[in-house]
Amino acid sequence: MKKNLLVLTTLFASAYLYAPNLLAKTVKVSSPNNKITVSISDENTPSYRVSFNGNQVIDTSLLGLRFQQSADLAEGFTIASSKQKTADSTWQLPWGERKNVRDNHHELIVNFTTNRKTSNQFSVRFRVFNDGIGFRYEVPKQPGLDGDIAITDELTEFNIPHAEKATAWWIPARGWNRYEYIYETTPLSEIDHVHTPLTMKLASGEHISIHEAALVDYAGMTIQKGRHNKLKADLTPWYDGILVRKTANFTSPWRTIQMSKNAAGLLNSDLILNLNEPSKLTDTSWIEPGKYVGIWWGMHVGETTWGSGEQHGATTEETKRYMDFAAKHGFDGVLVEGWNIGWDGDWYDNGDVFNFTQSYDDFDIKAVTEHGLAKGVRLVGHHETSGNVTNYRHQMADAFELYQQHGVRQVKTGYVADGGKIKRIDEHGIARFEWHDGQFMVNEYLDNIKLAAKYQISINTHEPIKDTGLRRTYPNWISREGARGQEYNAWGSPPNPPSHAAILPFTRMLAGPMDFTPGTFNMAFKGLGANTDRPQTTLAKQLALYVVIFSPIQMASDLPRHYEANLPAFQFIKDVPTDWQESKAIDGEIGEYVVIARQERHGKDWYVGALTNENARTIDLPLNFLEQGKRYQAQIYRDGDNANWVDNPYEIIIENKSVSANDSLTLALATSGGTAIRFKALD
Ligand code: NOJ
Ligand code: CA
Fold first, then answer.
1. Do 472 and 500 fall within a single domain?
2. Which of 170, 272, 315, 548 holds its CA 20 to 30 A away from the CA of 210?
């Protein structure tokens, strides 16, 4: 009898392992246009796969979570029920790439259960749009998951068919330099551990990008490649190795996969914003898009210093001069870095001594702000923490209050510290060292935004947590860095290569606005050529960046004297808006070139930015985005016929043409060149 039972059990076990599970269930949900289909299955273990345009773009990929104390939500779970619904609405951004955003998706919530007494249920909610999918875990309170919960692994996979034939654009994750790496272009099979957005072109030709939306009170997700090129979620840990700490009844951020037949289509996706909550701020009138100059580049090229002394940049007199320059040329703000005590010595390691309310003796905050406000220019504040977040937190409220008293509406924050070296003092007085993208810092960055809102201050975070669309919920999170910006062209060794700005739109920019700080007019602060620290671009490409790289606040980052020396080219920076009614990516190939058209939010004019990598090229630009029947004066800023980025970057031709929607232009871009156009509506 005993023997028979054993035979039976063995038979059953092998049937379970080796035969198709006839009881397995699959449920499906498709996009409104039916081009994307997600299939969720419980065969062996919860999983999903995705097809797009008839091609499999995600192969069978695991779902599930593991915990420190309770049993896993993974193997052995089956689909108990599912429910579908449809949504179609339009909502508005107070500022952004476009005013009206359509949210049209099909949702399927899949409820999984297993036959045990504790930790026995969870759901995965899928939303399928025409431009991709999002899904998140929803874990209700239940026996075994009813108090404090520690997540030790998220099993989510994103398995790409034929990874060796797919091309990926990526930066490494969990490195000392956070998100500030030069992008790599490799077969997907050659990645190791990377950040999101992870963008790729598949063997079938489809373009997809893996990222996340609404990262709140959770660890940031990176992607780790495993055996057989499987791609798996890798959540950034706390100092003690736990990935995420939650209390019962929680949801994860949305895991997102944006999809498009062509590269430019990725740039027209609103998926990340659509998966975020509506604004929590009712009055947003104090959030001001605009342009700024600043006491900034001088420090980066070594003309002035952040710290005190003879070369101190942030003096009252110098700030007043910048305020005058800003007022004369129509800028809204003047950023001042190095005004507050704490910059002397090696400020990278000085985080403990930064004082956010006390200025150096040669900087009078009252005098400079009064001087500026009389001319309609605000001071843009600056809080560099050097990653010492407890020191900042203790002073944050007072620091915002001081700025608010002086009419400051925007503050740039900074978290310069190596990856894994954010210093916080815990409740026992012990120093703990965290990652910029772990759960502790995810919360810390957002708390800073929420507190700033109380003082009607918008925040531009440098060395930030990556953007996941939270600007929809907190529109005072007005911009951030989170990739290599212009500063690397001052001291980068190496600087950003010519392909950098042709990769950024398809990777970093899918997450949200970036404070790249374009507009270097003097490329020769260390000499021209291919091997010096300088922008590896032409002048016209510097102008094109203002349209290509979206940020509601844009800096004209060079020194005033370099703009004064080239007022005709500077005119484009003065004219270009930073807030848009509509944006259309027109053309592009990742790492090669990109063309973007945007219409200003408060008028009829359109703007175009086009830029290329190290290869010169011509691009046809049909003007059918312009309003039919209307005439426009195209004010074109283009590379001169002999321009090239290495030794002739300044040759620029500025010309006007009368055009309409039925015309097209041929853009001739030099090596690492660009074209910037204002289409001034004529009536
Ligand atoms: C790094 C920031 O990206 C840069 O803009 C700033 O000037 C320095 N930190 C100092 O805060
Ligand atoms: Ca930086």
1. no
2. 548
| Residue of 534, 494, 536, 542 lying closest to 518 (CA atoms) | 542
Give a yes or no: residue 6 inside a domain.
no
Cα-to-centroid distance, 514 and ligand 1 (Å): 14
376 φ, ψ (degrees, to nearest 5): 80, 25
Protein residue with its CA nearest to atom 2 in ligand 1? 462
**520-549 average pLDDT score:** 97
Give the domain range for residue 515: 495-683
| pLDDT tens digits, 567-602 | 999 999 999 999 999 999 999 999 999 999 999 999
> Which residue puts its alpha carbon closest to atom 6 of ligand 1?
414
Dihedral in degrees, nearest 10, Cα atoms 560, 562, 564, 570: -100
Element (H, E) at 126: strand 121-129
Which residue has tokens 């956070």? 178
**Is the shortest distance between the CB of 437 and ligand 1 below 6 Å?**
no
The CATH number of the domain holding residue 150 is 2.70.98.10
Q: Is the CB of 180 under 6 A from ligand 1?
A: no
- Cβ of 337 closer than 6 Å to ligand 1, yes or no, is yes
pLDDT digits (tens, 9 = 90+) for 378-420: 999 999 999 999 999 999 999 999 999 999 999 999 999 999 9
Q: Do 198 and 170 fall into the same domain? A: yes
Cα-based distances in Å from 561 to 486, 521, 553, 637, 654:
18, 10, 22, 21, 21
- Distance, CA of 305 to CA of 298 (rounded, Å): 8
Q: Cβ(477)–Cβ(450) under 8 Å?
A: no
Element of type H or E holding 432: strand 431-434
Q: Tell me, yes or no, whether 184 and 289 share the same domain.
A: no
Structural domain tally of the chain?
A: 3
My answer on whether 212 and 287 are in the same domain is: no
The CB of 515 under 6 Å from ligand 1? The reply is no
State whether 451 and 514 are in the same domain. no
Q: Is 1's pLDDT higher than 80?
A: no
Residues that are catalytic: 487
